[in-house]
Amino acid sequence: MLPSGALDFFTNLIGKENVYSDKAHLIAYSYDATRERFEPNAVLFPRHEQDVSDILKYCNEHRIVLVPRGAGSGFTGGALPANGGVVLGFEKHMNKILEIDMQNMVAIVQPGVINMELQRAVEEVGLFYPPDPASQEYSTIGGNVNENAGGMRAAKYGITKDYVMAIRAVLPNGDIIKAGKRTIKDVAGYNIAGILIASEGTLAVTTEVTLKLLAKPKMTKTAMGIFPTVNEAMQAVYKTMASGVTPVAMEFLDNLSIRAVEQTYHKGLPIEAGAILITDVDGNLEEDLDFQLEQIKKVFRQNGCSDFKIAKDKQEAADLWFARRNVSQCISVYGSKKINEDITVPRSALPELLEKFDLIAKKYNINIPCFGHTGDGNVHTNVMVDGKDPEQIKIGHHAIEEVFQTTIDLGGTLSGEHGIGLSKAPYMSMAFTPEEMALFQSIKRAFDPNNILNPFKMGLH
Length: 461
Ligand SMILES: Cc1cc2nc3c(=O)[nH]c(=O)nc-3n(C[C@H](O)[C@H](O)[C@H](O)COP(=O)(O)OP(=O)(O)OC[C@H]3O[C@@H](n4cnc5c(N)ncnc54)[C@H](O)[C@@H]3O)c2cc1C
Description:
Layout: H1 6-14, E1 19-20, H2 23-28, E2 42-44, H3 49-62, E3 66-69, E4 86-89, E5 97-101, E6 106-109, H4 115-124, E7 127-128, H5 141-147, H6 154-157, E8 164-170, E9 176-180, H7 192-196, E10 205-212, E11 214-215, E12 219-227, H8 230-241, E13 249-254, H9 255-265, E14 275-283, H10 286-302, E15 307-310, H11 314-330, E16 337-341, H12 350-364, E17 370-373, E18 378-385, H13 390-409, H14 428-431, H15 434-447
Parallel strand pairs: 2-4, 3-4
Antiparallel strand pairs: 1-2, 5-6, 6-10, 7-11, 8-9, 8-10, 12-14, 12-15, 13-14, 13-17, 16-18, 17-18
The protein binds flavin-adenine dinucleotide (FAD).
C-alpha cells in the first residue's frame, strides 16, 4: 500500500499518463526473466532527471520503496518489486541517445536506450560499442550498467564496466551527482562510478551514462573446433588465450548441449563430440585474421581438436554459430525446470571445474548441460530437474550449492554477468566473509540510510 496522497503527488508531478496504477499494468510490471512475480503499487515514468530527483525525495521522506527497472530482462530478480512500492521505468521518456562525440569517441545516453539501438547508431558513423549481451535487442543501458552486462565479445573487448566513463545518478534523498568525466584518465576522488556499476539499482538511480567507443574493426572471421572431450576443449581455451592471439569470442557447448540442439533442430551437429568451441577473430587486414586463425588452429590441434572448420562466408559463419545461439531454449529436453547459473572462474581452472560439475551431476543423477563464454571463464551451468517434483527441486538446489562451492574453491565468483538480485542472495555468505558483507552493508547505508532503494537485493537489508 502507498501512503494516502502518494498517487496524487506523483500524478501532479509527472501527469496521469506517466503514472500506472491499474491492475493490468501492475501485473505487466511484476515480472522479469526469472518468472517470479511481485506486483508494485504503481509504475512511474519520469520525463527527465529532475522528475527522478523529486520522486526519490518524496519516496525517501515517506519511506516508499522504489525499484528502478530497465527492460526487465534480468535473470536474478533485480527489477522485481519484492517489497511492493513504486517501479521507475525509463522506456517512455528517458530513452534518448543524447550525443555521439566523434572527436572524443564517446556516447552520452539516457538509461532507457536499448543496447542494440546504441550499437546501430554508433556503427553508422564507423564507431563501435562492444558489450553485446544476448538480450541486446531489448535490454537497456541502465540495466546493462547496473548489472555490468557482458556478452559474446567479452573475451577480447571486456564488459560494460570497461566502457563506462561517467554516470549521472540521483541518490535516494533526491541529490543529483555526477561520477566520472569524459576523459580517458580520471584519478581524482573515489571511483564512485565503479561502485555504482553492478550495484543492481540498490544505491542510486542512473539517469545518464557516458560510454567509451572504439573504432569499428573492418572484418570478422568465424571458426569451429570439435573436441573428443570437454577437458581437452577447456585446455585449448586457456592455452589459446595465452598464446599471443586474442579472439573476440571463444564460446563452448558440452556434449549434452550439442545433443539438445541436434534433437531440436537436426542440423547434423557432431553428437559424439565431448565439446565444440566456436571462435571469432576480427581486425582490419585479411592476413591478420588468417594469422590469428592459424594460431588458434595450432593450439586447438595440440589439444586434441579432431576437426577445425573456418567459415567461408557470412552464411557459413551463421551456421557455425547456430548451435550456440539456440542452445539455451533447447536444453529444456532435460527437464521442465532449469536452475541456470553463470559462474565464472580463472580460465585455467575450467578443465577441473567441468570435471567436478560432471561428478555433481552423477552424484545426484541429474543432467547439468553447460555452455557459455569460456573465453572469459564464464560458464552457463544449467541444473535440469522435473519442475513438478518437489524432491527433484530440492535435489537441484543441493546440486547448485555444490556448483557454487566448487566455483568458489577454484577462485571463481557466483556470477559473471547476471548479478545477485533475489535469486542468488542466499549464497552471498558462501562467497563473502562477514567482514566483507558488513562493508557492503555500510556502503548501502551511506547511499540509502532509509533502505528505500531496491531493498533486500544482493543479500543486503
Ligand atoms: C534471453 C536473455 C539473454 C541474456 N543474455 C545476457 C548476456 O549475454 N549477458 C548478460 O550480461 N546478461 C544477459 N541477460 C540478462 C539481462 O538481459 C541483463 O542483466 C541486462 O543487463 C538487464 O537489462 P534490463 O534493461 O532488462 O534491466 P532490468 O532487468 O530491468 O534491471 C536489471 C537491474 O538493473 C537495475 N536498473 C535498471 N535500470 C536502472 C537505472 N536506470 N538506475 C538504477 N538501476 C537500474 C534494476 O533495478 C535491476 O536491479 C540475458 C537475459 C535474457 C532474458
